[in-house]
Design a protein that fits this description.
By secondary structure, this protein is mainly alpha-helical. Helix content is about 70%, strand content about 0%. The radius of gyration is 20 Å and the shape is globular.
Length: about 190
C-alpha cells in the first residue's frame, strides 16, 4: 500500500474549524490511517471509533500549531504522535476504570492486550515528541540559540565544543537550552492536555 500523500492545501483549509468540506475530506482521507494506528497500539476493537473521534477533536484543536519540518511524511508523523498521546491517555483511563472480569471474558480481554512497548520504543517515541515540539517553538528563538540547543540536546554534542564552534559562552548555551526546553515542555503539555 502506498503511503498517504499529504495535501498541504487541505491542511491549510483545516485550520479554519468552520470549513466542513475540508474536514470531510480529511476524515475520508485519514480515518482509516488513524484507525490502523489505534489498533496497532492495542486499543480494543469496540473502542476504536471513540478513540478515533477523540483524536479528531485533538487534531481540530491543535492543527494550527503544526508546521512542516521539511522532511518526508511530516504531517503523518505529527498525526502519529497526536494519536499515540490520545491512545496513552485513553488506555490510562481504561486501566483506572477497569472492573473485575473473569472466566472466558478475561481470556478474551487478555488476548487483545499487546505487550508493553520496550524501553527503546518508549525512548524513540519521547525523542520524536521532543523533536516535533521543538520544531513548533523554533521560530521563537534566535538562530544561534536554536543551533546551540539542537547541537547539544538533540545531537548530543558537548557544550564546550558547541560553544567554541558558535563563539558563545557555555553559560549562554545552558541558558538558551533551559528557555527552549521550558517552551518545548509547555507545548507537549498543551498537546497532552487537549
Amino acid at each position: 500500500m502506498l503511503p498517504l500523500e499529504t495535501r498541504k492545501s487541505l491542511i491549510v483549509r483545516l485550520k479554519n474549524e468552520q470549513n466542513d468540506s475540508a474536514w470531510r475530506d480529511f476524515v475520508c482521507t485519514y480515518e482509516g490511517f488513524l484507525q490502523r494506528l489505534i489498533q496497532r497500539q492495542g486499543v480494543p476493537e469496540r473502542h476504536v471509533p471513540d478513540v478515533t473521534q477523540q483524536i479528531l477533536l485533538v487534531i481540530a484543536k491543535s492543527v494550527d500549531g503544526w508546521k512542516d519540518d521539511g522532511n518526508a511524511a511530516s504531517f503523518r508523523r505529527w498525526l502519529s504522535a497526536v494519536s499515540r498521546n490520545v491512545v496513552i491517555r485513553f488506555m490510562s483511563r481504561e486501566r483506572k476504570q477497569a472492573g473485575g472480569v473473569g472466566g472466558s471474558d478475561l481470556i478474551a480481554v487478555l488476548q487483545t492486550v499487546e505487550a508493553a512497548p520496550d524501553e527503546n520504543s518508549t525512548r524513540h517515541y519521547e525523542h520524536e515528541l521532543i523533536v516535533w515540539a521543538a520544531e513548533q517553538v523554533r521560530h521563537e528563538f534566535l538562530e544561534t540559540s536554536w543551533r546551540a540547543f539542537w547541537l547539544t540536546v538533540i545531537d548530543g554534542q558537548p557544550v564546550e565544543a558547541v560553544a567554541r564552534e558558535l563563539r558563545v559562552s557555555p553559560g549562554s548555551i545552558y541558558m538558551s537550552r533551559s528557555r527552549i526546553m521550558a517552551k518545548i515542555k509547555a507545548r507537549i503539555a498543551d498537546v497532552n492536555d487537549s
